[in-house]
Structures are given as C-alpha cells and as structure tokens.
Amino acid sequence: MRVLVTGGAGYIGSHMVKMLLEQSVEVAIFDNFSTGHRDAVLGGTLVEGDILDLSALDAAFRRNRFDAVMHFASLIQVEESMREPAKYFRNNIVGTVHLLDIAVAHGVKHFVFSSSAAIFGEPCYTPIDEEHPTQPLSPYGFSKLAVERVLADYERAYGLHSISLRYFNAAGADPEGNRGEAHDPETHLIPLILQAASGRRGSVKIYGDDYPTADGTCVRDYVHVVDLCDAHLLALEYLRRTNRSAAFNLGNSRGYSVKEVIGAAERVVGRSVPVERHDRRPGDPAILVADSTRAKAELGWRPRFDDIDTIVRHAWQWEQRLAKKEKVAN
Questions:
Q1: Model pTM above 0.70
Q2: For the stretch 283-299, what's the b/e string if a residue is b when 16 or more beta carbons lie within 10 angstroms of its beta carbon?
C-alpha cells in the first residue's frame, strides 16, 4: 500500500509517517516546510511542494500510484486565523480542494482528513459527541468544517470515501523521544508549560482562573499524538474494509484543568513551574471534553496513553532534547 501524507514534516504528520513505516506501508511526504521541519523527516520519500500548487501535486501523483491520502497540511493557529482569515481559507480550503481534485483525477478512493473540535464552537453540552451542533467561532474552525462538507460532496459526485477525525487537544510526543511539538510560535499549553520548566520560557500564562470549574481554570481533553495516529491507521483500515465515509471525535473523554496540567508537569519534572495569571481570553469555553464512543465502537480505537502524567512525561523527554539543542546552538 502506498500512502501520501501531506504535512508529513509537521507535528502529527511526522508521527503518522513513523507509524505507517512501522506497518511496512510505502509513504510519500508532501510538505512545503512553512511550519514543518526537515529534521522531522526520518523516513519515507520526501516531495517538497505546496498544496496550492496544482502542478506540484499532479507531479507527485504521477510519480506514484497512491492508494490513500492522509491530509495534515493545514494552518492551525486560531488567533492568527482571526487576524488573517484569507490565509486560512486559501490554504485550508482552497489547498485541500486542489489536493482532492488531483486525488480524484488519479483514481484515489480513500482520504483521511485531520479535522478539529474547533468546528463545534461554544459547547451546548459536554462531553461533545458527533451530533453536537457545529458553530465554529474562528476562521480556522470554519475552514475545517468547510472541508468536511466538501468531502461529503466529493463522495456523492466522485466516489471519494473519507474519514474526518476531529481532534480535541493533541498533546505528547513520540515515546522514543525522536519527534514532538516544535511550533513557532508555540501556542499549545503543555509545551508552553514545559518550556517554562526547562528555562526556555520565563513563565506560563493562565488566562482566567474564575471559570465555573473545580479550580477556576479551563478544562480540556488532551489526547496523545500516538493515539491520534492509531486512530488514523484504524480509519484507513475502516475505509478499505467498508468504503463508508464517517466523522469521529477523538479525545480521552476526561478533562484536565490548566492547573491540573501544570501540577502534572511539576510532578514529572520535579520542580515548580513559574506562572503568570491574566484575564480570560475572549471565546475560551470553560470545558471542552470529547465523547469518543463512536470511534471506540466503530473503529475499535483504544487510547494507549490516556493519563495526563504519561502525556506530559513524553512531551518532557522531547522538551529536554530541544532545550539541549538550543543550549548547544547558543
């Protein structure tokens, strides 16, 4: 089997490439390195290109007969999407349509899409299942929802079967320490906490401690990046077995507050983490927790790393490596 992984040099994409290679799948990585990293490409065939470039996409498909596409090449910063919506609509929607057009032209029938819980917006209830209303609050969330709707139309018109996997909070790192988060700028809570713990950042900011939660800070559902990749592999197997499109929410169905995550980090690193308290940010819901019942029932998905200490421990291994690399460079 040959699989094209767009965004395969990024955080989740590079972990996915590793897992596919371990399953003896032939993998091609398509990445423009706008946010991905060359040192994250540790196997597979690299094709440097942009999903907005139809000719580059077509050339990649002409050189290979892909059985499936896994699509991770999206821009993901919510706040940036509020400032630059056109950038997000262009890359996340137009670029994905380009990718779909070329995939259809070359006879690909299976497509796994990296979607997001951001499609739901302010929760009407928690935990959030697949039937929850979709009212995204940001251009980023809208772009993910738009692609899900495009995929439904492409199935009806062209027979392209797809799975949309709606992540809650992707976290953690390769347990072997070879891959992890390295966003620039970093916006995810766990790496920000660990950067403060390692000394690469002065402190971590808590935005609001007066929410209607047990300790006043926001509660989120953190899902290990390896478990997300497991779900992608199961989604591909599901498509090959059933030729049925579907969407699944992916989380551990257990929320941790900001203070609880900081506490987990302090247990893992063995020292306190400096904290700054700030006012709430507009649009931050108090609680976001997934109902992943459908993914478990239909895909057979079983998260392997579902406790926060393990997630943080794996991320800390990666942060120590980054901190050491930065120290050597300086």
A1: yes
A2: eeebbbbbbbebbeeeb
